Amino acid sequence: MSEQQEQIVSRKKEHLELCKTDAVQFKEKTTGFEQYDFLHSALTEVKIDKIDLSKKFFGKKVSYPFLVSCMTGGTSEGDNINLKLAQAAAELNIPLGLGSMRFALETNDYDAHFMRIRKAAGKVPIIGNIGAAQIVKMNSFKPLFQLFEKVESDVAVVHLNPLQELLQKNGESNFFGIKKSLKKLVKQSPIPILAKEVGSGISKQTAQILLELGIAGIDVAGAGGTSWAGVELLRNKKSNENSFWDWGLPTSFCIKTTAELKKKYHFTLIGSGGINTAFDAAKALMLGADFTASARIILQTLVKSGQAGVVSLIREWFDDVKKIMFLTDSQNLRSFGKEKLILKKDSF
Ligand SMILES: Cc1cc2nc3c(=O)[nH]c(=O)nc-3n(C[C@H](O)[C@H](O)[C@H](O)COP(=O)(O)O)c2cc1C
């Protein structure tokens, strides 16, 4: 293994260890979901047994408006985690995000693993993943497309993580040319290309530029959950007091504002970043997300309670989402909108 590959492996290991804890949570800043309450309907007529949460994700019907956010890979533990997440996603019939495929690109050693992932995931949509810092440097996307094909990715996401790269020791914070690269990638890719942040959020302004470039889906991955500035600061043993720890746009704000673009563009909006309860997931959907997603809580549940624990967690969340739909008189996801949320400050 080259020195650079060894660095990636030890970085991924440290990321995993830190994300198993709550030490990397945002400190003061929150997702903003706590500012909302549900508009209780005392006159509900919803038939709770008839609520259907299934939805199409890029042409494939899945059982819940939820996906497993992209996580890790490149270490034996990371690969094992992805395999278990693939099995959980298959059992739940929900899309599965993969961690960055950068390592696989550099080692050419991943064919068998990717085939195991696809086998474990069955037919559920798989989301390939690569960093913006990598695509700006690529002369050809062919090797990347070959990887997408090996795992039979239905779509792929480019992660935009300027804050993380900026604070990471040996991070790659040169994103010059990213818009041009994204446009080229979208044009050449055989599958739809999505974009995501990793916890600092995507603004409506940025989302609009991405949509103009041809991006087919946006995962806002906003602030209030895992702080990747926090992860890198802890890795560097830098002070906890760093102001950048809490940098970013709250998830609820990103979803609400980016959803306004649906009037003009056709795209899939994924609301993530600090989705840690059924109530968070419900509010994300009500504010305009087509799908919601989580990362660190899924990892923590997997470590604590295994694959069965992940399956139970998501089933329990969406049983609760159905109860919230019942109590807000929302028979289906279409009628489960922001008009059924109130700002808590307005109810006192
Ligand atoms: C252990 C771990 C590894 C991650 N690795 C990746 C990655 O390789 N690519 C990526 O796009 N996002 C990665 N993420 C970021 C998540 O997809 C997500 O955007 C972020 O953690 C915010 O969601 P959360 O608050 O639910 O954790 C990772 C997250 C965790 C917890």
Largest sheet: 8 strands, parallel, barrel
- The succession of helices and strands, N to C, reads HEEEEHEHHEHHEHHEHEHHEHEHE
Q: In the CATH hierarchy, what is the architecture at level 2? A: Alpha-Beta Barrel
Tally of helical runs: 13
CATH class: Alpha Beta
Rg computed from alpha carbons, rounded to a whole number of angstroms: 19 Å
Describe this structure in words.
The structure is a single chain. The protein is α/β, with parallel strands linked by helices. It has one domain (3-347): Alpha-Beta Barrel (TIM Barrel), CATH 3.20.20. Helices cover 43% and strands 14% of the residues. The strands form three sheets. It has an eight-stranded parallel β-barrel with strand order 4-5-6-7-8-9-10-11, surrounded by five helices. Strands 1-12 form a two-stranded antiparallel sheet. Helix 2 (76-92) links the parallel strand 4 and strand 5 (96-98). Helix 2 runs parallel beside helix 4 (111-121) and helix 9 (204-212) crosses helix 11 (251-259). The longest helix is centred in the last third of the chain and has 32 residues, at 296-327. The mean pLDDT is 96. Flavin mononucleotide binds next to helix 1, strand 4 and helix 13. Residues 15-16, 19, 69-72, 99-100, 129, 159, 196, 198-199, 221, 225-226, 272-275, 294-296, 299 line the site of flavin mononucleotide.
Main traits of this protein?
two-stranded antiparallel sheet; single chain; eight-stranded parallel β-barrel; globular; binds flavin mononucleotide; 13 helices; alpha/beta; TIM Barrel; 348 residues
